[in-house]
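Narrative of activities, Objective 1.

The group set out to show that a structural description can be obtained from nothing but a protein's sequence at a throughput compatible with the screening campaign. Below is one input-output pair from the validation batch, recorded exactly as produced.
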Amino acid sequence: MRECLLGENHPEVAESLNGLASLYETQGDFHSAIGLSKRALAIAEQALGTEHLSTAACLDKLATLYSDYPEQDSFAEAVALAQESLAIKEHLLDPSHPKIAGNFDFLASVYADLGEHDKALTAFKRALQIIKQIYGENHVMVAYSLSNLASFYQDQKDYSEALSLFEQALAIRKLLLGENHLKVAQSLSDLASVYKAQGETDKANVFRQQSREMESRIYGTEPQELISRNNEIARHQIKGEVISALPLSRLVLKTTEDLLGKNHLDVACCLNNLAALYISSQNDYASALPLYQRALEIREYLLDENNHYVVQSRNNLKRIYSS
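Output recorded for this entry:
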């Protein structure tokens, strides 16, 4: 429709091409996805120029596809595209911009996969520096970036540096989120994993126990009941008894909402599971659609617009409309 009404080289055609590329990506057809994404990039460069944020977004999309593509030299291609995108953003945006920090985070992860550890470390540090410039020293995004850098050091077996950074992340989360929060529990678990890797089992057990006790205080006894119900749902599905799984899935959704509130990522997951059951058991798209829509709303509210789970929810809606 867009090709017919707007012409084959219109930016909205590029948008459609990237959307279609995402669908092929979810099916594991990276060859087709990359071909479509390349065409989208060519349109953006022709229609908008090589120095445009939409062109940078097309470069980012193609870089992400190459980073996930299981072929030789695909990581090197991802790096080249991400660097090109970064150059555009650095030219057009303030040096301390979240999109630039995002590019450095992406580059750091790809460099790490390539085994170029010095470049990965530099990129992780640059991302952290920008995040601190934007949000200050005490912010949940700073804690997130510190944890990313700490995980990198842990992978390199630099346990001293990893511990220091995980401890900083823990301190920020306790300050901002309080003593009883899942992110705090995650930081405690991170510290436990470093101590375990060092062979300090006693310390690891202390932090692991603190993490579990905190989760228990937050969740109460419900998690074990939820796990039991989800296991039962899985057993019904394995036996092909999908209709029997529906009431259990509705119960899991209600319990999770009561436990965590209606706007929680775990609730979005339950909504998606229930919607999938409506489709697989009854082809009931009318019941599934509002569940997928609500899951997308929750994820868009809590996560970055380009987050994997947001994209997944959008793809769920695309598939249901297609069906």
